Here is the input.
Amino acid sequence: MLKLYIGNKNYSSWSMRPWVLLKQANIAFEEVMVRFDSFDADSQFSKTMSGITPVGKVPVLDDEGLVVWDTLAIAEYLAEKYPAKNLWPQDTKARARARSICAEMHSGFGALRSACPMNIEASFPDVGQLIWRDKPAVRADVARILGMWSELLNTHGGPMLFGAFTIADAYFAPVAMRLKTYALPVQPHITAYIEQLCAMPGVKAWVTDALAENDFRDFEEPHRLHR
Here is the structure.
C-alpha cells in the first residue's frame, strides 16, 4: 500500500495537496503524520524526515520502497500510476493549462504564503483586513489567483476548475483555506467555488481532521495570541 508522510493538518499546506488528491480519488494509502515540533536540525521532525527523504520535508510518498517527494512529483507519479482516475484533465490543452497553474502555485504567490500561513482552525478576519490594506503584494497575488479561477470556471463551466475534480483543485485547496481564514475579499462566484471545493469528500475529511487536532504550534501561529 502507498504510504504518505504528512505534517500537522492544520498547518501543512503542502501535505494537504497529495492527501486530498488521494482521498478524493479513492486511492488507498496509509497516512503517517510526523508532528511539527520545530524545523531545527535536531528536532524530532527533522530527524524523522531526514531518514526518509534527502530534503527532510513533507509530504513524501512511499510506494513499496520507492520514495517520491515534492508535491508536483507526487501528483505526476499518481497520475501515471492510476491513469483511469483522470487526475489531470483528459483534454491535452486543458491538461497543459492545469500543469501550468499548478507549477505557478508551486513556485509563486510568496506574499500570500508569507502573510497568510495556512491555519484551518483559526479565524482572523481582522488580521486579514490589515493585510489587505497594508500589503499590495498580497492583493496582487489574490487578484492573480481569482482571475485565474474565474477564467477556468467560466471556460469549463464548473463546479471545479476544469469541470471535474483534478490535481489543480487539490493544489489550490490550501489557498481556499487561506481565503477563508483571513476573510480576504472574493466575488460571489469564487465563494461558491470555495464552498463546492470544501464540500468535496477529500477536502472535507482533511478539514475535519485539522479541526480535531487541537495541537497549536507557536512557530506556526504568528497571528494568534498564545493560549
